[in-house]
Design a protein that fits this description.
Blueprint: H1 2-10, H2 13-20, H3 24-34, H4 36-39, H5 44-54, E1 68-69, H6 71-80, H7 87-92, E2 106-107, H8 108-115, H9 120-124, H10 132-168, H11 170-185, H12 198-205, H13 215-257
Antiparallel strand pairs: 1-2
Helix pairs in contact: 3-5, 10-11, 10-13
Length: about 260
């Protein structure tokens, strides 16, 4: 019985190690592709978790290249989310299916497996088999959403830094205010408003393979989720633009008060 358990635990070991060594975006995509039916209409739950996970990377660690955190930073991530399990418990979660080393960095996909109570078997053997074309389209949609999050995060951080300089006043404050005004006025993402095109309608019209194993439902979910991600991204960008306009108005009002 012990040998059978060991054999079972090693069945997916090489696949899981290969996935866990990839960047965090690739891990997110693989997880979502495997469990598309569970997250249809809510891919952001996983993608936003990935963005939060990235924030805890230690200096010199690029999670886009290596999607794993050291033990200490993983503890900080879990504490921030008020998730009381230990890193050991997180590692033990997968022991029944993969024999991982006791001391290793924690990959984002390991956290996802615990968070959403998924098995390694289903991760690598999802029900149904969507067409490569649909999977490619889904990957594109996820990549665009991840790119939009990255642009927004960088822009928000720059705005935060400039606002701090403005508060200090002086020559640097005036220079920062001018740069901030230009940044807030630049509507770099406005062009994405028109990205919902006839191509999306064509994708929606694609026929799913009718089968009893869930393939048809998975294919429909992939198409619908891709479209929804595009629409949600545009909605977020419009909301971001509105907030920037409000911020610009507040800065203008504050500047007038000093005149």
């Amino acid at each position: 019985e012990g040998e059978e358990k060991m054999a079972a635990s090693n069945t997916y070991l090489s696949q899981f190690l290969e996935l866990s060594r990839q960047g965090i975006n690739e891990q997110s995509k693989y997880f979502l592709r495997s469990f598309v039916m569970d997250f249809a209409g809510n891919f952001e739950e996983v993608l936003d978790l990935a963005e939060e996970f990235k924030k805890f990377a230690p200096p010199g660690r690029d999670l886009l290249v290596t999607g794993a955190l050291p033990e200490f930073e993983t503890h900080l991530f879990l504490e921030k989310r008020d998730e009381t399990l230990t890193v050991k418990a997180l590692r033990d979660n997968l022991k029944r299916e993969v024999s991982l080393e006791r001391d290793h960095d924690v990959a984002f996909v390991e956290y996802l497996m615990w968070k959403f109570q998924k098995t390694v078997h289903l991760l690598f053997n999802p029900p149904g088999a969507p067409s490569p074309e649909l999977l490619a389209e889904l990957d594109r949609a996820i990549s665009e959403y991840q790119a939009a999050l990255a642009v927004k995060a960088a822009r928000d951080e720059k705005i935060k830094q400039l606002q701090q300089l403005v508060e200090l006043g002086g020559v640097k404050g005036m220079r920062a205010k001018n740069e901030l005004d230009q940044l807030l006025a630049a509507d770099l993402l406005e062009q994405n408003r028109r990205e919902i095109t006839s191509a999306a309608k064509k994708r929606k019209a694609q026929k799913a393979v009718e089968a009893d194993d869930g393939t048809a439902a998975r294919e429909r979910a992939l198409v619908e989720e891709q479209q929804r991600l595009e629409q949600e991204r545009i909605r977020k960008e419009e909301e971001d633009r509105r907030k920037k306009e409000e911020s610009r108005a507040r800065l203008a009002a504050r500047a007038s008060a000093f005149k």
